[in-house]
């Protein structure tokens, strides 16, 4: 019996950090930090799409709450999982920005019936993606460090303009957009986060981002930068009743458009799963990618039932994992639970909405920069001196940065193609995979050896 107990203790001690459960308070606060990092990204798409398709402010607010609720469901699918569904990594899911432009385009042609048509298209695209997930999972051997490092770097660099926009105020039409006050507030938050990371220790150091958001918001209150109207106007309880906007409608053009978006989301999620696997020290294999994509696509197929949009990975939370070193998937599952509660309690959701965008932007610079830094670290082990790896990185980064450096570069292309071309992550990923195949696989023994060799996992 004593030997059995020692063996049980040894097994418990060998548990991977991804599968560890933390004390309740630490679990809640760390999960809340993930929610704070992703909140703006979840509510922004419905804030854009709602008015664009003619919804009233009340209906748009309902859409925002529904997006929080469905993001929580999708996050639980990813972190806890069941059967062959879920990456079972600290992987956050939320509303994808890739679908915003196509959804607005659908809305212009449908008027009042836009939302049911959009939801019908998302449901079909989600189901098709679910059945296609196993084929994406088998592509893992085509993602060596030279590809994953490039894509991870592009993810971080592509997200930085979002943080810069938030730092300026978020609303380009506002009179104070880019004002010294907004940028100064972002700078103060950035400095607070850096100082906390430098001088705090233990758990407090790990939640430096959350503390930075709290301190930044408290500083913003006397400056008149915090809007309390959302709390005053919010209901205490509200459930996203199924098919609130009517039964889904299925139109071929809309379905094709959203299927393209789904392919983009699956490509980006594959890169994100690989990135997160390296960061937490559990490299993603084909089964992990397949499970993650199944959770992505099933979450997207279910979301319209509760009036939510297409779900995909949130790269900013990967940066949070890299920065805090908290790798437990149950922490992110706690964040998913908080998202569900926020979706059921509009008043609670509005509390997080108190954080001014400049404050969020200051913290975002650190978060998104951490993702890019992880990509650079991965490239350091990509044998850049061998073959044409340096050329692969150069071309992929150059093409992937086009939408960031020159946003109107593809303005003359068909709108359907813009779904892919305007995503530097997607174009960079496709180019990196294609060039890696051309230089390191096709007719190359060296490429076959590289594909068979295990990838080095960077230390974090």
Write the layout of secondary structure elements.
Elements: H1 2-13, H2 24-52, H3 57-79, E1 93-95, H4 100-110, H5 114-137, H6 145-168, H7 180-199, H8 202-206, H9 208-220, H10 229-233, H11 252-279, H12 286-302, E2 311-313, H13 315-324, H14 329-344, H15 346-352, H16 357-379, H17 389-400, H18 402-405, H19 415-421, H20 424-440, H21 445-452
Antiparallel strand pairs: 1-2
Question: How would you characterize the overall build of this protein?
Answer:
- The protein is built from 21 helices and 2 strands.
- The chain is mainly α and 460 residues long.
Terminal-residue CA separation = 39 Å
| Biggest sheet details | 2 strands, antiparallel
Strand line-up across the major sheet: 1-2
The percentage of residues in β strands lies in under 5%
What proportion of the residues is helical, as a percent range?
Answer: 55-70%
Mean pLDDT: 80
Element order, helices and strands? HHHEHHHHHHHHHEHHHHHHHHH
Tell me the total number of β-strands.
2
- How many helices? The count is 21
Q: Give the overall silhouette.
A: globular
Determine the structural class based on helices, strands and strand pairing.
mainly alpha
Catalogue the unreliable spans: 8-12, 447-460
What would you report as the Rg, rounded to the nearest angstrom? Answer: 22 Å
């Amino acid at each position: 019996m004593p030997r059995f107990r020692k063996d049980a203790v040894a097994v418990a001690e060998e548990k991977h950090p991804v599968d560890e459960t933390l004390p309740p308070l630490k679990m809640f606060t760390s999960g809340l930090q993930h929610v704070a990092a992703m909140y703006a990204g979840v509510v922004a798409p419905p804030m854009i799409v709602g008015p664009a398709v003619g919804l009233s402010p009340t209906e748009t607010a309902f859409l925002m709450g529904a997006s929080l609720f469905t993001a929580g469901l999708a996050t639980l699918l990813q972190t806890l999982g069941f059967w062959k569904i879920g990456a079972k990594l600290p992987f956050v899911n939320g509303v994808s920005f890739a679908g915003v432009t196509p959804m607005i385009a659908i809305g212009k042609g449908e008027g009042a019936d836009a939302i049911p048509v959009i939801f019908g298209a998302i449901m079909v695209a989600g189901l098709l993606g679910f059945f296609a997930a196993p084929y994406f999972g088998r592509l893992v051997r085509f993602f060596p460090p030279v590809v994953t490092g490039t894509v991870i770097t592009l993810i971080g660099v592509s997200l930085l303009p979002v943080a810069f926009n938030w730092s300026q105020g978020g609303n380009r039409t506002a009179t104070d957009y880019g004002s010294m006050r907004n940028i100064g507030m972002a700078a103060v938050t950035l400095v607070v986060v850096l100082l906390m990371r430098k001088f705090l220790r233990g758990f407090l150091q790990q939640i430096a981002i959350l503390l930075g958001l709290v301190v930044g918001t408290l500083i913003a209150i006397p400056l008149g930068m915090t809007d309390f109207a959302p709390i005053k106007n919010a209901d205490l309880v509200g459930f996203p009743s199924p098919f609130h906007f009517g039964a889904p409608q299925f139109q071929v053009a809309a379905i094709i458009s959203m299927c393209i978006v789904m392919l983009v989301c699956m490509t980006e999620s594959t890169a994100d799963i690989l990135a997160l696997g390296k960061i937490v020290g559990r490299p993603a294999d084909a089964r992990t990618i397949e499970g993650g994509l199944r959770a992505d696509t099933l979450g997207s197929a279910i979301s319209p039932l509760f009036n939510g949009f297409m779900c995909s990975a949130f790269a900013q939370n990967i940066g949070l994992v890299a920065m805090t070193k908290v790798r437990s998937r149950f922490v992110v599952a706690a964040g998913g639970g908080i998202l569900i509660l926020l979706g059921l309690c509009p008043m609670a959701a509005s509390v997080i909405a108190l954080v001014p965008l400049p404050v969020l932007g200051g913290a975002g610079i650190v978060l998104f920069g951490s993702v890019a830094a992880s990509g650079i670290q991965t490239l350091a082990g990509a044998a850049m001196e061998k073959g044409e790896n340096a050329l692969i990185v150069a071309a992929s980064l150059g093409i992937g940065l086009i939408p960031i450096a020159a946003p109107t570069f593809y303005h003359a292309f068909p709108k359907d193609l813009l779904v892919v071309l305007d995503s530097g992550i997607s174009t960079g990923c496709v180019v990196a995979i294609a060039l890696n195949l051309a230089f390191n696989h096709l007719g190359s023994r060296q490429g076959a050896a590289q594909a068979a060799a295990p990838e080095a996992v960077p230390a974090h």
